[in-house]
Amino acid sequence: MKPVKVAVLGSAGTGKTALTRALKQTLTPALSDSLSSTGAADAPGWFITDESPLQKWLSGQTAQSHLGEQADATGLQTVLTQQRGFDHHLLLALDIPAPLAPGMADGRAQREQMDALLRSTLEQAGLPFQVIYGLGEHRLAQALAALGKPAAESGSGRKPWVWVCDKCSDPVCEHRLLSDLLASRQA
Description:
CATH architecture: 3-Layer(aba) Sandwich
CATH class: Alpha Beta
CATH topology: Rossmann fold
Radius of gyration: 23 Å
Largest sheet: 4 strands, parallel
Order of helices and strands: EHEHHEHEHHH
């Protein structure tokens, strides 16, 4: 069985590495201490990375654009071919503030530029992606939902409420509900 490949994408400072580690820890708790962000010790059945070909290439292109170099169209096509091998693309939103490096007053503009570049490249390539918002457990729960995995139950001990009327088949109850519904319509 081939592993499910997940690319965690985003601008610098959006928490790609933290989410990658949290996903690996959640999917395989026994490996939690030995997990790296590059996929070397992934959960069985999962390959999760924050260093996908597209992320690396766009980061390099953004750095080169500051030097005045043009993007390599052939290189982009090669990268997109590799990126199509991923089953899920999780794009981290810009909803959390990122610490600015010393001397980088335009850090916010650079983050927004990278975010726009990631979104437009994924859209133009026809690669579906899910935008993940929030912090901590909320972000992890959104990522797990995007991967089709339910988030872990909270430790409150409460079970979710389940409506059982559609499974009950008590004729007296059904008659009363139908009679009440008809009476409310006639009034």
